């Protein structure tokens, strides 16, 4: 993107100056844009390009730098149509031309050929072509005892009573009695754990507390009376 300056007055009147990088303006021969005028300082001003944006900066010139007839003290961003003036020399700012986007081809202009897919149909074989070996014979699984009992059902109570033989005491025969678990070695069942008696401290009753308080009160009164009598005796003795 290239900015341009079109000279309005001065020695470059009618000419255009392209700005593709930072440029120094002044009367010195080392300047990028040399202006031969006594009003122009040796290092008068500078054009700066920052992110494709054009700025102008005054370098403490004697006669100043103006943008749209206003003297600038700091960097000033320029736009299309601004008038930049160095002393009495004026330039018109021309912004870069905008690039027009190319016209994209629409989807409707693209011819899309239809894609046909052949659908394969399964081939049906006649029933006569099926080999007899392909016919699987069902395998009958043997039934468990539990399944047979479930199908037969529970016997009636009378039938169960006839099958069970009882002793004289009325206990069914043929039934095993479970044995107790064995006692581990080194365990004495006769040993008893002796527990020490727990002593519960007796809390004083309310009556005992009241008697103790009365006793303390009586002792206090007797002490006070004794002291008063002693004081009277001593007073009489020394009188």
TrEMBL record:
The chain crosses the membrane at residues 219-238. Pfam families: FHA. SUPFAM superfamilies: SMAD/FHA domain. Residues 23-72 form the FHA domain. Keywords: Membrane, Transmembrane, Transmembrane helix. It comes from the Bacteria. PANTHER family: NUCLEAR INHIBITOR OF PROTEIN PHOSPHATASE-1 (PTHR23308). It comes from Acinetobacter rongchengensis. SMART domains: FHA. This is FHA domain-containing protein.
